[in-house]
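Catalogue entry: protein

Sequence with per-residue tokens
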Amino acid sequence: MKTYNEFRCQTVGDVQAATEKLDVAEIGKITYNDTLPITTHKGVYNTTQKKFCNVVSSSYHLVQHKEYFDSVAEALQRLNIPFNMTITQQGHKAFADVEFLNKTIEFKTLNEKFTTGFRATNSYNKLVGLNIAPRFTRLVCTNGMILSTFGDNFSVRHNQVIVTELEKFVEVKIGQIISADDKLQQWVSVCMQDSTEWQTVVKIIEKLFTSFKYRQEILKRLDITLVKKKDEKTKKKTKEYIFDDVTRKFTRWEIYNSITNYLSNGEHIAPLMYEYGQKRAETVLLTPINKLVTIEVPNV
């Protein structure tokens, strides 16, 4: 069941109307044992949900979801960039997925076309500061691709002075994304040259995703079948992977795309799970196969 808000916008006015419906937070006092005030730290409270979010230092600057996303839309307008923006909110985090309507990248050597954009993220619980990550859409299959590892200083913590210059921060980051297409082409080229057997693909997906459903759906896009089995005598449950073309090898680019295709075109995935999956997909994009099978992936 859908447990989050989603708003689709094309103009600054659309964005401003949508962000009026997002949660609001405030900074307040915290006390020990309900009596002793703590002066070195404060608390962030989601007043819309009437929930405590996190403890912050006295230098912390709270940025509202509305304030941030309105600044994003206004920066796009100043830069004369037509856009589609989808704003979603889940828990204490909010996301704005932006697609540039006038910018398509064509990599002739790769025979690939992409639209360009970015994901802007903000949170009230300190899980992320002000963040802007490039977002590409592979047109042949409408796979959304979010790349957090893309240059330096794309994330700003709320206690930094730059939050007082929010519009400038957003405008600079958009400019960096627009001029950074070569890095994507480089990563895709390397991925297309790195391949492995299907058994290794299974091990990689097992390491990246604990959910049986996720594994099943991602592998299905590579024509690998994952099924559950149950021994009638012992009642013990096991799983089995089935693949017919045992001589075929898969490139890292194919593995990456099987993940992003499921996230973008499979069942409707909640924003936090989409972000979780994209981070694991990015691990595939940036890590050689011989290291992927041994990499330690932190839990989220």
Summary: Residues 5-180 form one domain. The longest strand covers residues 93-107. The chain has two domains: 5-180, 194-292.
